[in-house]
Amino acid sequence: MIDLAKVRRLEAVGFRAWPAATVLYDGSWLCRLTAGHPSRRLNSVNPLDPSDYRDIPIRLEKAAKRFADYGRPLLVRQTPLTPPQLIAFMDDAGWKDMGRTIVMVADLATLPRDEGLDHLPSRDVGRFVDARLSVSGDDPALKPGLTEIINAIKPEAGLFIFEEPGFGPTAVTIAVQDNDLVGILQLGVAEERRGQGLGTAILHASLRWAKLKGARHAWVQVEADNAAALALYRRAGFQDVYQYSYREPATA
Asked: pTM for the full model?
């Protein structure tokens, strides 16, 4: 049985941790749009109340027009909060499932007590974005959009960068502390340095920082087909809480 109250809280902190440029509500359907970055998390309709299922075709048509204005395809993010009637509508209309993501949580009390803060986060957003793009191999054209997103994060964010002389950035992650919760985002390890424990090291460095700041639990969102990332987080004590997927209308 999924704890919907827990899902609601994790959804809320997730939105704050990775803020969209434009946020619009249609009833309890949260429409997130971001012209500067193509991330599905930043460009999707997020229904937040299982009982809000009135006028489904009309509301989806309205949302499609909003997305078209941003040059984005209409996506609905299907979570345990999505009304069953909306899911049935999408199923009947042949909407495609764009893959699943697992939301996981860990108790920070399980972290070793004798480890201090061995890495301090950076405050230089530009340096972090350059490191993230280098590690991930993403398009450098994403730099302005990613910079805007990180600068818009309202809770305290720790930007962690591991570097190696003569090589450059080897691993990065962002820890976003929101009261007693911390979200781990954008974790990446340079392809040439994978398999050396850097992912575990930078994850634990960020978790120790958040724990010292007062966080008690950590959360992360991991694509279900990313076996390496799932193994990393499960080794660190993260456990599955719920899943979500993105749904896209069937093409004609």
From this structure: 0.94
